[in-house]
Structures are given as C-alpha cells and as structure tokens.
Amino acid sequence: VSNVSTHEVSLTWENKDAAASEYSYRILIANETSSTRNMMSSTTKAVITGLNPGTFYQFTIFPCAADNKTEGDPNSTLIYTSKNHNIQKPAGEHFNLSGHSITDIKGGPKSFPKYYSLSKNVYVFVFPQTEPSPVSDIQATNISTEQVTLTWENNDTAAPNYTYVIYTDGNGISPTRNQTSQNKNAVIVGLRPGTLYNFTIVPLAADNMTKGDPKVIHIYTSNPVFNIWVTSILAMLSLLHMQNDDTAASEYNYRIHIENETSPVGNQTFKTMFAVVIDVEPGTSYKFTIFPLAADNKSEGDPNATNISIKPSAVSNLKVINVGTTEVTLTWQNNDAEASKYTYRILYGDYGTSVRQNITSQTMNATLTGLQPGTSYLFMVFSQVAGTEGDSNTTNTYTKPSPVSDIQATNISTEQVTLTWENNDTAAPNYTYVIYTDWNGISPAWNQTSRNKNAVIVGLQPGTSYNFTIVPLAADNMTKGDSNWIHNCTEAAPVPSFNCTPVTKEPKLTVKWEPPAGNSANFSINTFNDAWSSETLVLAGSLNTTVTNLNYSTSYNVSIITRSCGKESLPMQTTCDTSITNPPAPVEKPIITSITHNSFKIQFSGFESTNGPLMAYAIVITTAKEGNIPPNSSLNDTYNDFKEKKTKTYITNVINATQMRAFSSQSNSLQYEMKVGDTSKSYAYSNAPLEPLGSYCVAGFTKIEFNNDDRIDEERSYVSFTPYSQAITLLQDPGKAKIKCCIEYFAYIGPVGKDGKNSELPFSPIRSKSIKVENFESYFKKQQADSNCGFAEEYEDSGRVGINQPKFAAELTENRRKNRYNNVLPYDISRVKLSIQNHPTDDYINANYMPGYNSKKEFIAAQGPLHNTVQDFWRMIWEKNIYAVVMLTKCVEQGRTKCEEYWPDKGSNYYDDITVTLVSECVLPEWTIRDFTVEGSDATESHSVRQFHFTSWPDHGVPETTDLLINFRHLVQENIRQNPPESPTLVHCSAGVGRTGTFIAIDRLIQQIEMENTSDVYGVVYDLRMHRPLMVQTEDQYVFLNQCVLDIIKSQRNKKSDLIYQNTTAMAIYENFGPTPGFEKANGYHA
C-alpha cells in the first residue's frame, strides 16, 4: 500500500506462478459502511480512487486465470484514507471554505483555541482535537472455538475518555463487523472454530469522531480434537487417530504431547488427523495430549487428552510340543520390555467348527486338555496387559489319534492275512492306517496303508511268524497315533510233491518230499488205513523218512503235513503199498490122494497172504532122502534134468493161483488140489508121468520170476515151502518105491517172455463178494432168510469201511459252513477241488469223485447246494465240464429244506461270473427234465446241461418199485452216452450219500451184469465207501440194490428185454409216451 490520500490509494502485490503474466486481478473494495465495489487490473498494481477521506477500507485481491472465470484464493489488507480538517461554520451564516490549508495545529486535551487569518477579510478560530495514539500490546487470551478475549494498552492522558472500535474480519469473509469498548479489553463472540480472524482496534477521542491509527492482531480460534483412539501397528510404533469437524481442519497441525506412567516422553507434530507415534513401548500405558495448531503454527486450540495402553506385541516362536491324544502343550516367546507383566489368552477350538474356548496363562506356555483325538485344532495366543490385548499369533495341529484296539487276524492263509481292528475316535473316519509288517527281527520289512479299519496283507511267506503293527494317521497324514500290534503266523505251506516207495522185502515205506515254500518247523507223516495208524515227526531240514512197523503187501494212506509256529498245512496225501516178501511157510504137510501108477493128486491148505497176495503155486518132487524142504537151487531143475540124473529134486508144474479151484474141507479151511503127472507143461517145466520105483514129494512156491530160458530165477523169486509129504508108493510099483512131495507158493510171478521182462499176474485184495448170475437167486434167498439176516450182516460189515481216511479240508474252520451235515464230510483223497480264486479254501466243495464201471472219475457225488454254496455248485459244473446232473431229492421234504433251488425258474440267473439260462422244462409224474445253457464270463462258448430230477424217492427210503429207478437210470445213461467221455455225471440228493450212492451203485451193477455175468453188490458198495462216507446210507437201500439185481437177472433170463428195455426207451419217457400195449411187469421190474 502506498500514496494513501483522502480519496485514493496505490496497491502493489506479487504472484510467482509461472502463468502469472496471463493473470488478471479482481480487487474487491469494501468500507466500514458495508458498501462494496469491484475493479479489474491486468497488472500487479492498481490505483484505487473515489475513496472517502478518513474511512476504513478492506482491499481483497483475487487472481483470475486467462479464462476470466477461474479465481484463485484471495488475499486482503486494511487501510484508512487521509482525513480532511473541517472548520465549524459560524451560526447563522453559511459558507464553504476550501482551498486553504492550516498548518501547525496542535491537538491534545488542553489545547486552547487559536486565531487563524485565512485571507484579508476572513478569520478563523480553531479549537483543535488531536488524534488518539494507536493502541499497543494487543493480547489474545482465552481463545476458544467461538470467542476470543482481547486486551491492549493506550498510555494517552485522554485514554480514559477514549472509545475503542474493534473490527473483526474472518479471513476473507465480508462484511466486516465491529463492536466498541470503553475499556482496554473486549470479548469477541460469535466466532467460528478454527478460523483466522483479523482484529483491528481503532481508538476514538472523546468527540467520538477523531480516530487514532488502527492496530491489527491476527488470531485463530481453536477447534479441539475429539474421539481419539490408538492402534498399535508394530512394536515401538503406534497409530494415533482423532477427529476434528472444523472445515479448516485440513490446514491444521497437531502437537501431541506424550508422557508415560513415570515421566514425559516428548512432543511430536503432525499435519493430519492421524499420527504415527514412534518410540512407544508395547504394553506400556501412555497419556497423549493433542493440541490443534492453527495455520500460523502458533495458535493452539484447546487440548484433548486420552490415556492409552499400547497393545502388547504379538507372541513369537509359537510352537506345539508334547502332542497327545487329548492334550497338547504350547510354548511361545514375547520380548517386550513389559512382558513380565503380561498374561496370555489362548483361544482354541476344532478347526472344522465355530466353537471356541478360552484359557489364560501367566507364563509363556500352556497345556490344553480335554481335546478330541485325531482332530485338527486352531490355537490363537493373545498377549494381555492393563485391559489391552495384542494381536494374535496362531498355529494349528492335529491331536494324536488313539491307538487301534481289538486287532484280529482272520482268513489266514499261506501268503496273506486279513487284519481287522477298531478305533472309536470321532475323527476315525478320516484316519489313514499304516500297517508295518516285520519278521525274523527285520523291521520294518514293508508297510502299506488302508483308509478302512481292515487290510489284507499279501505277499507273506508260508509258515512264518509276523508282527503286524498298526499306526493310525490323522487326516494330515503326518500326525501319528501310538502303535498297537498283533503277532500271528501264516499257514504252513504243504509240500509241493512227495512220493513213497516200498522197501524191498521189508514192511517199510520210504517217503521223500520236496521242500515247501516258506518256513517249517517239522513235518508230520501220517500213515494209516482202516485198521491202523501211525505218526512220524521229521524236523525241518530233512526231506525223507522211513516208516516202519508196517504190514507186508498192505495199502496205506500216507499224508504229509507241514508244521510251523503251531500251525499245520493242508495235507498232501497219496496211497502206497508196502513190499511183498516170502509168504509164511505152512507147517502142515500136503496130503496125497488118488494115487495111480504114474500120477496122484495133492491137497494142501492155502498159504497165508499176509506177506503179499498169492500169485502162483509149484509142485516140487524129490527122490532125495535128506532134508525136510528142498533147497532154493532146485527151483531151476526140470524133469529133463531129473531124467538125465543131474538132480534128485525138480519142479513138475507151475500154476497161476487164480486158476486154482478151492473147496471146503471138513475142518472148514480152504483146501486146494493139484494133479501130478498129467503130462501138462508150464514154462520150462513138464508135469510128466511119475516113474515107478521113484521117490517123490510135493512143495509150494510164492513169488516167482523167470530167466530167459523160462526157468525160475531163485534169487529174485519170493518162495516158501510146505514140508515134504510122507513118502508114497505108486500102485504099480511092486517095490513100493517111496515118493515125497511138497508145495511151493509164489507171491509174485516175474517175466514169462523171452526178452527177460517181468510179467505180472493180476491180483486184487478180496474186498468183494462176486456172485455169478446163475447163482444169484439162491444167494438172494439165503441172504433174505430170517428177515434179511444175511443182508444185514453184509451191510454191517461195510459200516466202518473208509472212515479213517482224513477229511482235513472239510474240517477247516473256513469250510465248515459249506457243509450241510457235519457227519457227511468228503475224504481228502477223492474230494473235488475247484480253482482257487482269492483264498486257499476257495477250492472246497462237499463233493467227491466216484468210480463207475468204466473209469475212476465217472461220477461226482455231492451234497445238495446250500444257499451259500450255490455259486460254488455252478462253478463245479463249469470247471469240471459237467453235462448231466442227477437230482434225487425234492427241495423241501416234510417241511424241511433238503436242497437249495439252485437253478433259475425262468430266464437267466447270474452266479458270480457264470450265467445260467433255463431253456426248457418237462414235468412228468416221477421226474422232471430241465435243460440249461451255462456260460462263463471269460469264455467264448457255452455248453448245455441237462438236469434229471427224480421226485419219487423218499429220504432214507427207497422207490416204490425197482422199475422206477431202473428206467430212470436208463434215461440218464442214454444222455450220458452223448456227452464227452471225460465229462463226469454229477449226482446229488440232500447229503449226497444215501440216494446218491444207491443210484451210482445200480448203474455199476447193471453194467457188471451185462459185461461180466456176475454181480457184486457188496464190492460195489465197499468201493463207493472208500471214496465218500456212508454211500448207500441205509440197510433198506442195500437190500433194494440186491432186489434190483435179482429183478434184472430174472428179466434177462426170461428174455423179455436186454437190460436196455426196448419197450421203454429213454426218449419215449422223455417225450412223455406211455408203455406200449402188452407192457408187463415181472417182480416189480418192467420186462
């Protein structure tokens, strides 16, 4: 501001903007009467004219951009214009005075009027009133948000009479307002918080017109902060927040005075309503006092304070140690200076739920109990002090699963074990179980995992003791529970193969075998037959043994069982015969009868067959007088040698034992008779006529072998001699020459050919009662007498046949549920073995191969299927290539289930991987015929199966007449002939022994009658019972078999049919044709 006059003022200013040269400026002119006007300037100066003298003006300058629209923030100044000195006009006369200046006028309270001559005729008296001095030492006190108290000084003598005008200007806000005060102070009210005010004080003299020069003070009203809060963001660092509603708050600074519980810390100044306060200690209580500073950085508003405890630092190095099933221990660290005063809150809970629990700890560790095993838990640890809680540190862990319990080993085989166990933890469905398998101190050998509470351990060694250790894993697959274990042993493996051989001329068997897989402790060799049994134990490492104390020429069942860690393998079994040897020498002398001049007959008792079957007899004649029996060397001598006088003893005849006819003597012992001197020839020996005057005797031989010239080889033959007979005299011998004879018996006949090879004479143990057809009717009547007494004795004799044979497979725990009756179990030696699928016992079914007339495996006798063995039944049909099934029972008899209905009643049924389809069904009064197709899932072809279902046979009974069974058998046989020869016929009833045995027996007997003209009911039943127990189960069934044989023989004798019974062919029955006219019945059998 310059050149201030009564009517104008010169203004200058600066603007350092880069674009200031393009600016124009608007000057707002305002005076104390609220009159305003504007003027424009294109430069940074202006001369303001048209002002009133002695007037208070405010000049506000706005910079304008080049668009003449955009204005910047204004700046202001306050100015008084100069005053005119007025002369008071005289009373009554009006005039104006101008153009004169009076100088040297002094003012003051005691000024006296002065006389001034203005012109020649003009005189003025002036009473001077001087201007008050400007005020000084203006102070602003009690500054608040809406008022300020101003005080000032004025040392003029007339100051007590002054009036003071206080002009208040709110930083560019117009109009300016004013107030007066008679004192040297004033309270300015109605202000706005946080606003820069210009307070201008003008003194007025007592005339209330004369003004002194103004004095200005610039003051900001205060605007206190409120709602202060503090957050800790880092150790030694806090974030202080506050609020200030003043519109000018963005221009404020804030001074923060910080003090802790013991002493002041310092001051920090910030420009925003939040402040990062550094150098504060976590966990310490502070008082923060905040002063707002106006834009002049001097004017402070009213302070506001808050007491804050700085959050403790979060804990560090948080660890989980000592993890248990229901508790865990946590440890952590906190390095705050005040950490010793802290308590710690632990918030924890199952990770999978929202349920949380709290505990507190005074130390930097805690043990949390009552947890659930195998469960994921979240742990959050908070530091606490003075009601303040720091940020959390978190960790999570799984508790250990509980150990498994109730470990069971089932389905134990040679190479695998099924393990089951329990775990009742709530989290158990999420567990994984690791099963460690170790043996022989090697740990671990291997391991495997299971998501279920069971596992099949495979790849094991037979007969080996294993430790199975089970460790539960939580869902993280890392947290392990404590282990539990079970000790068990795999089943011992059977020997892969073995053989037994007889020891020559000794009642012993040498048994040799291949080593079994896996481990073994010893081997049990069981040798037995119907009358005797023995067990021999052989330690592992030995692969052979000799079984002693046996009988000669006896058939034994030999089985080998591998034993290991208290368990036994399935037996391997075969049948062996011991060697033969010299038969026991008879003590009785032969008897000579029917003596002629050159021949006689010799009678002797049969040799005992205990040392072997009797194969041949020979007659020895001697004229020697010494010795009771001939030397073995005489076996080589012939009649020609005798004639040539090379020997006195020679062989006259060799006869096959089977060719000799026996007769009963008065002593009921079996006697044999041979004629000596009948001119016959056998091998190299001649039964020449006896010489007169010769002395002879007769002896007998046993086993016989021949050398190349058809003479007996005495070294290789097994022979015994009867004592020589008494010397005899032929009738034509007048000199009564004496003849001694003896019998020798051969147990075995060797080579008869010229090539030196052995030829064996046939021999079978006598286990039969073969009756010729022509003798059968008288035999039948004899046995039938006294209420079938003879048949009853025969049936009783067969009662224990075969019962000592082993049934190990049927008695295994896994197989017991596959048996319909616990007293009908298949013998191991003849049982049907199916393929093994998943377990060694998969090969078991209650069925045996049965010998027919044509082959040893012509039939299979089986029990009726149970509900749980139907699949096995069809598997047997498929695997054994069976085309014909004979069913001899109803499914239900007298209200009891006898057999599961194992076939589809229509369409197809699936039995595991076998499909069975019903093709046709023909129902007749006594039987039903069904045709099926059977197909395996992995087969490219199917085959047909025909079921012959006989429905007229009561359990444990017999059919009403023999013709029903014979005709039914013929129907079946007609079908069998069309099937492959190697295909067995499957026969079953309920147990598979009574009706089944009777049917198989009648088939064999019919063919025996046709082919041999003999019948051996006892022998057939005996043979069947050696292959399956209880075959032909009742005495009634045994008698019925004999009745069938008698009826067939009578019909054959009457020549009404040929056992094929042309009047009732199978196809006629199958096609439901009735018998032709004239069809008659003979003795219950259709002739």
Automatic annotation (TrEMBL):
UniProt signal peptide: none
Cellular compartment(s): Cell junction; Cell membrane; Cell projection, Ruffle membrane
Domain (Tyrosine-protein phosphatase) ranges: 791-1048
Keyword terms of this UniProt record: Cell junction, Cell membrane, Cell projection, Glycoprotein, Hydrolase, Membrane, Protein phosphatase, Repeat, Signal, Transmembrane, Transmembrane helix
PANTHER family tied to this protein: CYTOKINE RECEPTOR, PROTEIN-TYROSINE-PHOSPHATASE
Protein family per UniProt: Belongs to the protein-tyrosine phosphatase family. Receptor class 3 subfamily.
Protein name from the UniProt record: Receptor-type tyrosine-protein phosphatase eta
Species: Gopherus evgoodei (Goodes thornscrub tortoise)
Gene: PTPRJ
